[in-house]
Every structure is written in C-alpha cells, then in structure tokens.
C-alpha cells in the first residue's frame, strides 16, 4: 500500500466518530493484527531481549515492581513478567485500546513460551505453568486483568505516564517497547521526570525505541529514513491519531535521559551500513542539517537509564 493512502485514511479515521473501532477492524483484516501469531512472536522476541538486558543490569524480573508505558492492544510484556515472577506490573496507556479477544489470544499463545520465561527469569518452570493455568482460567470468568492476575497486573487507561499517581521511590523498573517514538518530545521529558520520582534509588528505565519511518512497513518503495526529507510543517500532514511519529533520533532519547539525571548503562545505537546508504540517497530536509550523519541514520536503540542510588 502506498504510504500516503494509509496516512490519509488514518488522518480521516482519527477525526470521525467511531474511527477508533474502524481502525481496529482494518488492523485486524489488513494491518499488523491480521497475523496475530507472527505479531505476538515478534513481541516475545522483544520481551526476551529486554529480560536479558535487565538480568545483565542486575535487575531480575522475579520479585520486581514494574511499570510499563504504552499497553497497546494486548498485554504481552506485563503477562510475561507476571508469569516470570514479577512482584507487580502496572501498565498504562493514554487510550483504552486493549481488546478482550486479543487478551485471551495473548494468554493462549503464551503457553508456547512458558519454558523460556522460566529459564530467563530463573524461576521454577512448574510455578510458571501453574500461574499460566490460573490466569487462563480466570480470564474465562472475568476480563478484569487485575482480578485475573490476583493483583499482579494493573491496567490503567486512560492514564498519563507523566502523572502516574504512584508513590515516590516505589518502582524498580520502568519499561516501554516501540512507544517513545510515538510520544511528543515535551511529553517524553515529563515522563522522564516522573520516572525519576517514582523509581526507587538504583531503579532503572529500559526503553526500546524504533525511530525509523513506520510507513516503510506498509510501503516497500520507501525506507526507514524516508520521512527525514520533510520539514515539521510538511510532516504534520501525515501525523495522525493512530500513527504519530515524533522523528526524534536515537541519540536524543538517550541524551535527554542523561540530562534528566539518569546514568546511562546501556546504549545499543549503531549506524548500520544499509542505513548509511539509505541516508546518502535521501534528500534530507535542512532542519536536520545539524545532526551528524552517523547519528541521523540510526533507526533503533535499546537503552538503560539508572536512577542514581
């Protein structure tokens, strides 16, 4: 599909009554949700990567108090953390996107991953299987996620991650997956400030950011740096309620966290050869001229930012 057709359609749906429901149905039939199994397995790959980074940083999931920014359509990361022995997980979203059928599909698909969850979280596999069994049983009785997990997972939406209402120093780990690239820059600064407030001393933020042009996933004629050819004013036409992209570069997310008082202990950003070639072939708008090419071309980063102890 031509990216401009998708952008225009999403722009219209974003202002129509019932547009959110229509957008969801289109995602189920033609978009990223049409192949739920593939989409879910990719998310679990991302979760395992996060769990490994947290383990290496001395922040095991088992026993941790966790806070997710951006719940999405179904709670893959919160449920995986819950099964892995997290003390509790609060997941928040600005909009209440979560769907009952996808939540149940998420739990059913998780059965394939119980052994890896037990292994990477260093918890007893039998306990993981029992938590999963009880979770599946309770979800048949209630779609209240907090009740189904006996308080292990709380879903709050609509809710603002910059104004969580959570007590100071009461969270061990804050995380997000492919979320920050969809948040206005000023709001990211407010989220970092709130994270400093609610994280316990020594607590960490883990963020995985996909900061390439997301339209490239539906239009193979463009690449991940395509949107750098437009000014902010021009790009505003294509930003919409369902696919807002702030176009911040990877280094900005990390540097802003450091400026907010965090210690950066992991930064996976690197310039690949393919992205360098893409950039060389792209007529970049003048507003990006001050960014060094080796930073401008990076389209993904995982980073850990620790609150000083």
What class do helices, strands and sheet pairing give?
alpha/beta
End-to-end span in angstroms?
49 Å
Mean pLDDT: 95
Helix content: 40-55%
Q: Please give the order of strands in the largest beta sheet.
A: 3-2-1-4-5-7-6
Please count the beta strands (DSSP E, at least 2 residues each).
Answer: 7
- How many DSSP H or I helices? 13
Broad shape? globular
Rg from C-alpha positions? 19 Å
Largest sheet: 7 strands, mixed
Q: SSE order in H/E notation?
A: HHHEHEHHHHEEHEHHEHHE
Low-confidence stretches are none
Strand content: 5-15%
How does the SSE layout of this entry go?
Layout: H1 3-13, H2 19-29, H3 36-56, E1 65-69, H4 76-83, E2 88-92, H5 100-110, H6 114-121, H7 125-141, H8 145-148, E3 153-156, E4 171-177, H9 185-198, E5 199-210, H10 232-235, H11 250-259, E6 263-267, H12 273-280, H13 293-296, E7 300-306
Parallel strand pairs: 1-2, 1-4, 2-3, 4-5
Antiparallel strand pairs: 5-7, 6-7
Helix pairs in contact: 3-6, 5-7, 6-7
Give a quick rundown of the structure.
The chain is α/β, with parallel strands linked by helices.
Question: Would you give an account of this structure?
Answer:
This protein is α/β, with parallel strands linked by helices and 309 residues long. It is 42% helix and 15% strand. It has helices at 3-13, 19-29, 36-56, 76-83, 100-110, 114-121, 125-141, 145-148, 185-198, 232-235, 250-259, 273-280, 293-296, and strands spanning 65-69, 88-92, 153-156, 171-177, 199-210, 263-267, 300-306. Strands 3-2-1-4-5-7-6 form a seven-stranded mixed sheet, with helices on both faces. Helix 5 runs antiparallel to helix 7 (125-141) and helix 6 packs across helix 7 (125-141). The model has no long low-confidence stretch (mean pLDDT 95).
